[in-house]
């Protein structure tokens, strides 16, 4: 990590991108290309990592993340998200006014979430077959609340 933005990421983001922030600083991420998808995680064991902004490069990116954005704490989401956002910290912002997010959207999509999480099932060998119990693969689970 260097300067204002997190650096060293490979774009477009795909699969599972896990970034552990442990130094107590607030960071921003800027999506650099089109086609960002999968699971993007900012986390540490104490659930105290802070992302002060998720933005996109207007010259090179459409600003869309398809999948899941998981953070301990994040405030400014200046991207569009097709999937879901999960925030894990018990100390989320409840009083600040954030007018900057009004020109972007988060659309819940079970299909985008299923596609993003399918990589974990594929890697572990737990996808594609049904059945529970000893010696059988797990049921492919899908959330139905939309």
Describe what you observe in this structure:
With 146 residues, this protein is mainly beta. The chain has one domain (16-124). It contains one helix and eight strands; from the N terminus they run E-E-E-E-E-E-E-E-H. It has one helix at 110-124, and strands spanning 16-20, 26-31, 36-43, 50-56, 64-71, 73-77, 80-87, 106-108. A five-stranded parallel beta sheet has the order 1-3-5-7-8, covered by helices on one side. Strands 2-4-6 form a three-stranded parallel beta sheet, with no helix packed on it. The radius of gyration is 16 Å and the shape is globular. It starts with 15 loop residues before the first strand and ends in a 22-residue tail after the last helix.
Spell out the key features of this protein:
mainly beta, 3-stranded parallel beta sheet, 146 residues, 34% strand, 5-stranded parallel beta sheet, single chain, disordered C terminus
Number of strands: 8
Instruction: Order the strands across the largest sheet as they lie in space.
Output: 1-3-5-7-8
Largest sheet: 5 strands, parallel
Number of helices: 1
Global shape: globular
Oligomer: single chain
| Head-to-tail CA distance between termini | 36 Å
Q: Level of helix content?
A: 10-25%
């Amino acid at each position: 990590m260097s300067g204002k933005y997190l650096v060293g990421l490979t774009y477009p983001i795909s699969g599972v991108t896990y970034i552990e922030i442990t130094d107590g600083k607030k960071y921003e991420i800027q999506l650099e290309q089109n086609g960002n998808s999968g699971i993007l995680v900012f986390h540490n064991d104490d659930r105290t990592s802070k992302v002060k902004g998720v933005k996109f490069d207007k010259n090179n990116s459409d600003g869309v993340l398809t999948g899941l954005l998981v953070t301990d704490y994040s405030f400014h989401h200046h991207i569009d998200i097709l999937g879901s956002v999960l925030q894990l910290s018990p100390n989320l912002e409840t009083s600040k006014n954030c007018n900057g997010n009004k020109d972007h959207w988060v659309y819940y999509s079970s299909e985008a979430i299923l596609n993003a999480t399918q990589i974990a099932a594929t890697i572990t060998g737990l996808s594609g077959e049904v059945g529970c119990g000893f010696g059988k693969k797990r049921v492919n689970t899908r959330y139905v609340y939309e």
